Each structure stands twice: as C-alpha cells, then as structure tokens.
Amino acid sequence: MKNNEERRKKIFDAANRIKEQASGSAGKGFRVVITGKGGAGKTTTTAILSHLFAKEGYNVLAVDEDPQMNLPYAIGISKEEGDEIVPVTKNLDYVEEKVGARPGEGWGLMLTLNPDVSDVVERFGIKGPDGINMLVMGTVVQAATGCLCPENALLDAIVRYINLRRNEVILMDTQAGVEHFGRALAQGFKHIVIVTDATFNSIQVAKHAAKLAKDIKIPYVYLLINRTHSEPDKDLQKVKNIMGNAMDTFNEVIELPYEEKLFNYEPNVMPLLDVNPPSLLVERLKKLQQLLEKYDKQ
Questions:
Q1: Closest among 156, 25, 136, 142 to 88, alpha carbons compared
Q2: pLDDT for 164-185, tens place per residue?
Q3: Structural domains of the chain in order of their starting residue, each with its CATH number
Q4: Of 221, 224, 199, 203, the residue nearest 212 (C-alpha)
C-alpha cells in the first residue's frame, strides 16, 4: 500500500512539473479555445470560424480535442477521408516514440516529460477545404485529474507546442467545459469563446466556464447565445437571469439565430457560407471573427 501511495505521489508530482513547464511556454500566436455544453454548437462555431479566417488569408489550424471527433466533417472533409483518421493519442507507435511508453502502460515507467512534438502537424495534420489544417488529438479519461498515462503526457506536450506556434490562427474545439485543459494549458490561450443555448443546463455550463476563464485570467471572453428564435431578447434575458454577476466576465455577447439551413447541410458547414441571401448565422460569426482580430491586436 505504501509503495502504491509513493508511486501515485511521484506521478502527480511529475504531472505538476509538466503543467509548470507548459505555463511558461506560450508564444504570441492567435489562439482561441471554443467551449460549452455538448450540443450547444461548439463544433459548428469552430468550423465556420475556420473558413471565415481562411478566406481572409489566415493560415488556420483547427484542433479537434472533442472525443466525438466531428470537426473534420463539419469543416468539409468526406466521410471516406474521416473514417481513415487515427487520433494522435491513439497512434500507438507515435505515443511510444515520443513519451517512452505505450498506451495502457505507464505505472512505474520512466516517461519523457518534455517530448519533441514539433512534427505533429506535418505527420498527422489533415488538409481540408480552403487550405484549413486540421489536427485530431483524441482524448484520455480523467485528463483534468493529473493522470500521467502516456497519452496524457503526449496531449499536454502537443498543446504546449501549439501554444508556441506563431503567425497563424489556432482554433481548438474542446470537450464540454474547460477543466480538462488544466490551468497551465489554458493559460496559453488569449481568447475563449463560450457557446450556450437558452436552456438551463447549457447556461449553467457556460457560467462555470466563465468563472474558470476569469480564474485563470484568460484576457478575452466571448459569450455566444446560440439558436435564438423570434424573440431573441427573451433568450438573452433568460441567460442574464441565470448568469447573474457572471455576465460581467464577457467582453462581448453575440446572439446567434436559429438557422434552418444548417440542418439541411450538416455536418458540412461550407454550403452555408455561400447561400443567397447571406445566412444571418454566418454574418454574426463574421462579427465575432472581427472582434477576435480587434482584441488580439490590443
């Protein structure tokens, strides 16, 4: 029992060392994390923003950290291409090469705590429409709790590397909430977009994410109220009532209208970008794109 406790303590100590190294490695890139309750619209938001930035001439890296792995389909790759994707953390040879242990192993093993993953985008990136680069990371169980399995060591290192990339827009589609990032990893991001709809559970998740964003001092926090209907002000007031003082966290609040055409095209958002008359949903996300550029220059 004592040996198990000592081993566990060493692993948690090592996890903390990884986080400490990550907190000091953020570069000056344009980094945005998109989060919210499952089903609130994170992936659609990430996909549309990816295309909008790409059309403005930015080099876009869209990172799918959601275990559902729907972002590539939303951006516009085919089902055949998507079925061939192996998440980085599920590539056993790469994990072993970089951290010194295969997934499913790790207790008592010597792991590389600062692996070189500078080749990750070149080796595992997927090129999508509009020249968008995509990286499907995959996930691990209990990533927020200090798990030091090989996959998690690699996941942390990749996020640290992404934080160091310069002169491009990096958009990361996450799991629900932001706790799984850990404070050190989330500090590498200057912007957080929190997506909610007008349901109680979704607003509660957004409220919690806003508090954590404030606690870890992410400078710019945006709230998207998705799928507003004929009385958007009514939805906004409901969000304000449940959010309470948490509304003060947000630099900007944008209401996104319900878009029927999205369900005709899903999962691919590309046709929505070229409809006539223009989609009000896309127009509102263009406003968010412009705000992200504006605040990033401050």
A1: 136
A2: 566 689 898 887 655 555 544 5
A3: 2-296 (3.40.50.300)
A4: 221
